[in-house]
Prior knowledge:
The chain is of the alpha/beta class. It has helices at about 15-30, 40-50, 65-80, 105-135, 145-150, 155-175, 200-205, 215-225, and strands spanning about 10, 30-35, 55-60, 85-90, 135-140, 180-185, 240.
Amino acid sequence: MRRFKDQVAIVTGxxxxxxxxxxxxxxxxxxxxxxxxIDEPTADKAVAALAAQGITALAxxxxxxxxATAQRAVxxxxxxxxxxxxxxxxxxxxxxxxxxxxLPVSELDRVYAVNLRGTYLFxxxxxxxxxxxxxxxxxxxxxIAGKEGNPNMVPYSATKAAIICLTKSLGKxxxxxxxxxxxxxxxxxxxxxxxxxxxxxxxxxxARIPMKRSGEIAEVAALAAxxxxxxxxxxxxAVFDLSGGRATY
Length: 249
Ligand SMILES: NC(=O)c1ccc[n+]([C@@H]2O[C@H](COP(=O)([O-])OP(=O)(O)OC[C@H]3O[C@@H](n4cnc5c(N)ncnc54)[C@H](O)[C@@H]3O)[C@@H](O)[C@H]2O)c1
């Protein structure tokens, strides 16, 4: 399948984990991909891994929370390839896990800046280029935590809920254009993100999944790729579940 032949994608926070899996999937179906990551060696390694698979890729290293990173990423894509078809706002951090009254407010500020502010900034930079061609697909990475609220994860859960609502509002703003905006709400997928928390927290979340297993990166990438494709035409401002049966709405 070459659904993304001649198309251009930006995937944020794609040096590892789910973002890299999505970049590989889009690239394997023909997209040119610009990835971003806060860690430069990680970003460079990911580009080399994509290139080894025959995928045309570029990296921009920088903090997703900084406006300059979004500006640089979009400028680089436009200079190199002249268009943006797909934006996957994948970057996300859990932050410290503890009850709210034990977490300094600086922890909320940090998680907010990466998860919500970063998503906002990349949308702001990319959308004018999508509107210029009246085509675009935006896929935002929320989480089941944003629907249900996980204990000891208030900053993460609250910012993921905000990404769900950003998706709903933005989807409506763009509904009469060729730009679609949707989000994903995965439950546990084994990636390096879980190094930010405890084994007990991970086990507690795994036990809530009716399938009694974690999700696979390839499973997230498959749904993200459909949302990033032209086939996703009548869905916008919508929330797509990937939770092994945990989500009840
Ligand atoms: N893994 C899960 O269980 C799970 C479940 C639900 C949702 N998600 C969401 O999926 C997305 C990807 O998660 P993952 O598990 O692949 O994470 P990960 O930690 O494995 O990978 C994230 C990548 O983003 C980079 N990064 C971190 N902070 C950054 C910043 N400020 N700016 C730019 N890059 C930064 C990291 O260097 C890393 O390469 C996140 O939004 C996460 O919240 C993950």
